[in-house]
Every structure is written in structure tokens, then in C-alpha cells.
From TrEMBL:
It comes from the Bacteria. It comes from Streptomyces dengpaensis. Belongs to the ROK (NagC/XylR) family. This is ROK family protein. InterPro entries: ATPase_NBD, ROK, ROK_cs. It holds the Pfam family ROK.
């Protein structure tokens, strides 16, 4: 028997990925284009349409019942629009309407952090947990929440955007307009910036990425270690605040910075013990994400399955 499928789009500042996904989260067909992030909005949309075009010519397309989109944000789920910080050509862009016109099926839009949360809850590290925070720590810091067993995107699709919780009242101004945000301290570029400002110097290859700082920290460089400890402290404060507010019992961390492994997770778990002190948050665990680079696509598919009961919804 042929089950229904959903199409998934994962839209970010560097790539636009698409897939056809079954109700077990298996990816049956992929398509991808580079995001023309510096171009005007319609040029970006043409890249999205090219990805959709590769999916719609497949013989499998006849089984597709909905499209799920996970997009860099902010998104507005209710209005069906997106305004990704890193795609200046899209401001209040009517993405849902355009994708519906290109596909002829119902469309569900969520933020990329919420999409990754959906994937980790459905298939990954948060599976079996009714109350979870999932985070992506990379160029930015995003996230999403599962509450009472359900993905909780909120009215606009941005619930769980932990990167813009302020954890340092007198901290650096953040590009979002606030001050001392988690992202301003814990994102990859900010870990690297702080290490360089502290006197860390890259090796002969000149690599100044957070991954290079992580390597130096593993080798015992005190400035590199301190930069990761500061990032871990900011993440711990944000996670503890979230847990105190909504009683999550697990925080899942993915993204490039999480690949630092113990360099991040050891000081993070230590700092969490300092911040998550109330009895109802003391059992909170922090674990690495499991879903890898397909998380955005699988999560977008999960969202489409969940809001389109005519598809074979495995539930999220």
C-alpha cells in the first residue's frame, strides 16, 4: 500500500533544501539550491521554485498531501510570511501563498528552530519526552519547545527563540536591539570573537572559526577554554530560565557549536547546576542533538503531517 507523503522545505541563509518525506520521517527524494541571499526577494523565490520543481516532476509527487516549511526567521505563521534576518530581500514575504501557488497543496510554515525541535521530538534525542527545549547553536542561536507532548510553535511560529533571552543585563548590544542576549555570547561567531579579543591566535591555517577555538580549548589553551565557558554559562542561564518558566525536563543542543562536544557540554552541565536550582528543575538533563543536517527537513515534514490529518499523521 502506498502511504501519503509530504514535501518539506528547509530555508536558510546559505541553502534551500527540499525533500519528499514519508510518515516515518524517511527522506525519499532530495533537491537543493544555494540561497541567493544578497539578491532581491523574487530571485530568492525562484531558487525555492527550482527546488519545488525538482520535487513535483517526481512520480512520487502524486502522493504528496501537504508541504511543510521550516524557515530562518522571524516567521509569521498566522500571516504566512517570512522576514529572515540573513535574507534581506524577504521582509514580510508571502512565502506560504507563493508555495501554495507552486504546489497546489496545503502549506504549513514554522521557524527553523521549531522545525528542528519537531524532528528531535519525533525521531531524535527528545523522543519520549513530553516537555523539551531543543536548541540550535551555530551562526545564531534558535530553538523550540515541546509542551505536554505537543510541538508548541505559538501564534507566529517563534516560540522557544532562546537566543534572544537576555542573560547579561549590562551586556553587549545585540543586533536584535536588546542587550546581553544568549546569542550575543554563545553563537559560534561570538565565541570566536571573544577568543580573538582575549588574545587567542589561530594556527598557521588562519582558521578563526568557533571550531578552531574548540580545537584550541581541547588542547588546553586558556583563552579558548574561557570563551567556551562563557558561552556555556550563557546557555545554562537561558536553559534554566526556560525550565523554570515551563518545566522542561530535557534540553537538546544541536548546531555547529554543539560539535565541540565536551568542550561545551562539560562546562554547560556544571553551569546548569548553578542556575537550575529549584527542586522542579534539578532533574533537567542536557544532551546533544541526534538528527544532524536533515533535522530541518524532517521537522518541516513533521509539522505538515501534524496539521494535515488527511496525511498519514504519525503524530509529533
Amino acid at each position: 500500500m502506498h502511504t501519503d507523503l509530504v514535501a518539506a522545505l528547509d530555508i536558510g541563509g546559505s541553502k534551500i533544501a527540499g525533500a519528499l518525506v514519508d510518515d516515518h520521517g524517511r527522506i525519499l527524494l532530495r533537491a537543493q539550491r544555494a540561497t541567493p541571499a544578497r539578491e532581491d526577494g523574487d530571485t530568492v523565490m525562484r531558487a525555492v521554485e527550482a527546488v519545488i520543481g525538482e520535487l513535483t516532476v517526481s512520480p512520487l509527487w502524486g502522493r504528496v498531501r501537504a508541504v511543510g516549511i521550516g524557515s530562518a526567521g522571524p516567521v509569521d505563521r498566522a500571516a504566512g510570511t517570512v522576514s529572515p534576518v540573513n535574507v534581506p530581500g524577504w521582509r514580510g514575504y508571502p512565502l506560504v501563498e507563493r508555495v501554495r501557488a507552486a504546489t497546489g497543496v496545503p502549506v504549513e510554515l514554522i521557524g527553523d528552530g521549531v522545525a528542528i525541535t519537531a524532528a528531535e521530538h519525533w525521531q531524535g534525542a527528545a523522543r519520549g519526552h513530553d516537555n523539551a527545549l531543543c536548541m540550535v547553536v551555530s551562526t545564531g542561536v534558535g530553538g523550540g519547545l515541546v509542551l505536554n507532548g505537543q510541538l508548541h510553535p505559538g501564534p507566529t511560529g517563534n516560540v522557544g527563540h532562546i537566543g534572544h533571552i537576555s542573560v547579561d543585563l549590562d551586556g553587549d548590544p545585540c543586533p536584535c536591539g536588546s542587550r546581553g542576549c544568549v546569542e550575543r555570547i554563545a553563537s559560534g561567531p561570538n565565541i570566536a570573537r571573544r577568543a580573538l579579543e582575549g588574545g587567542w591566535r589561530p594556527g598557521p591555517d588562519g582558521d578563526t572559526s568557533a571550531a578552531a577555538v574548540a580545537e584550541a580549548a581541547r588542547a588546553g589553551d586558556p583563552v579558548a577554554v574561557a570563551s567556551f565557558q562563557r558561552a556555556a554559562q550563557a546557555l545554562a542561564a537561558g536553559i534554566a530560565a526556560t525550565a523554570t518558566l515551563v518545566e522542561i525536563d530535557i534540553a537538546v543542543i544541536g548546531g555547529g557549536v554543539a560539535k565541540a562536544g565536551d568542550v561545551l557540554f562539560t562546562p554547560l552541565r556544571r553551569a546548569l547546576a548553578d542556575y537550575a536550582t529549584l527542586s522542579f528543575v534539578q532533574r533537567l538533563t542536557v544532551v546533544p542533538a541526534l538528527m544532524g543536517t536533515d533535522a530541518g527537513l524532517v521537522g518541516a515534514a513533521a509539522a505538515a503531517l501534524n496539521v494535515n490529518p488527511s496525511a498519514t499523521a504519525a503524530g509529533v
